Amino acid sequence: MSWKVLITDYVWPSTDPEREVLEAAGAEVVIAPNGEENTLVELARGMDAIMTCFAQVTEKVIRAADQCVVVGRFGVGVDNIAVDTATELGIAVTYVPDYCVDEVSDHVIALMNTWNRKISIFDQSVKRDGWGHLGLTMRMMRLRGKTIGIVGFGRIGQAVAEKAKAFGMNILASDPFITPDIVESRGGRLVEIDELLKKSDFVTLHAPLIPSTTKMIGKAELDIMKEDSFLINAARGPLIDEEALHNALSNNIIGGAGLDVMVDSIPSKSHPLLSLENIIVTPHVAFFSQESTLELEQRAAAEVVSVYKGRMPDNLVNKDVLNHPNPRHNIDRL
Fold this sequence. Notes:
The chain is an alpha/beta fold. The protein has helices at residues 16-24, 37-44, 59-64, 83-88, 101-116, 119-129, 155-166, 180-185, 193-199, 219-223, 242-250, 290-308; strands at 3-7, 27-31, 49-52, 70-73, 92-94, 147-151, 170-174, 188-190, 202-205, 230-233, 256-259, 279-281. The protein folds into two domains: 3-99 and 290-323, 3-Layer(aba) Sandwich (Rossmann fold), CATH 3.40.50.720; 101-281, Rossmann fold (3-Layer(aba) Sandwich).
């Protein structure tokens, strides 16, 4: 007898890789026509599993999924899933926390170098005005000896540190869950966030989005950064207070910013930040390569299959669900 898996949304060319894994395990795959809550509520009824990329799997959606045993995330964070509701109902939640470490850390370094070497500015000038029309009056740093501050020193933060070291940069890290020896093993030093912001030439954010990190970079934090510093966010948009960032960029409180994420998942073309010249924006693509996406699709599907078949997944988000008195799942803890 087949079981049913609802895929709420995806941003890659096809669902063939995950479909292959799921169908090999006897699943029937249902693709949602859109990620709207009402649509997902309707489709969730009778589903044994839900897989989601960016769509909001809300409390209402999870409560409608009366047969669901697992919600699997195509990705790292789970802030688009009502994890507490899933845990309450005995539903396991899985994710793939390490599939795009190379890509995101590469993207951070690319944003840093694109800004510092003024790649976009020179490219546009040559194509628009011809060779050598821009004077060399803008700030361009020698990276060797400069300092990069990494806020959140998990897998991606540590990968950024390794790549920055190759440029001869000094490493500062701030993370309440990391010990000094871990940072030192990557050639850096663990400090409080205020010291990091004051001393860093480049600041890159890699913290999870939780209540305590929402708007963790606001006016007070931007005011103590260096005047020519560059702020990078390839983690979660709401980590930054966008109004405060706009003010800081408009008034040259910091030098510039590079964003791969913003507060709104699809910001309006008229968003005030997008009108500024001292900002580089990419549309949430830091995670992407053909290799990373294939890995994500296959591993996310394998996690869902593991839970449905009663096996412990590699990456269980809500471990408390293992102690649920009447769980939907039947994960064998042994």
